[in-house]
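Q: Got a minute? One more chain.
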Amino acid sequence: MRGGCSCGKVRYRLKREPMFVHCCHCLDCQKQTGGAFAINALIEADEVEDIMGETVAWSMPTESGRPHDIHRCPDCGVALWSDYGRRGWLRFMRVSTLDEPHAITPDVHIFTRSKVPWVRLPEGARAFEVYYDMASEWPDESLARRRAAAEKAKGGA
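A: Always. Here it is, folded:
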């Protein structure tokens, strides 16, 4: 899957399917996107090929106090991905920047306690008032990928 910003200066390609996809309804995501939620595809940073251009990281305040950098196109300002916690090895790719953004659907809806009241979640959607237990929600293969990426980042692989 390929994607990029509005002006075309930054382009990327996901080399494999995301590990997991969040539709986040927190107030930070609402404010930062100007919309009702943000849809983020979680994927290992080395599974994203930066095809063209470089992003600029904007440090954002968070309720938790943990660092959150949004990587944006330096020209048009579109948010392409986030690095929550400044891990470097994990990207939260903005699904709306994909060339085919509707090809990916959320696995979970999070922070629904602050969901816009008129937004209706799909019937049967997995939804959480705040966050969830990864071990219960993520597929085993995705958990293994996440562990491997974290170990590699620590220098263990």
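A: The mean pLDDT is 94.
Q: Perfect, thanks.
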